[in-house]
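Fig. S4 source data, part A: sequence.
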Amino acid sequence: MTAQKMWTFVLVGLLMMTCVTEASRLNRFMSNVCYFGCLAERVACFSSTGAIFGTVPYGIIAVTPTLESCTVVFKICKASCIAILISSKI
């Protein structure tokens, strides 16, 4: 992965986290937008490594560090979306 692609990935991740924190008081619709953003980020991460999201078996993802990091970031992002959903019900 080139340095430019890595910085793009980091900046997109920071942007998503900013959106998550700013959107924590919004409703269920914002949670769905968040899920879409997480998925778009994961697809972009896979593309930056040269893989096509949805075509790589999990066994390959688990042993490839860059793809595994994409999965970890995706899980953290989804957890943030769940926090938005929960906070909108309070």
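Fig. S4 source data, part B ends here. The CA atoms of residues 17 and 33 lie 13 Å apart.
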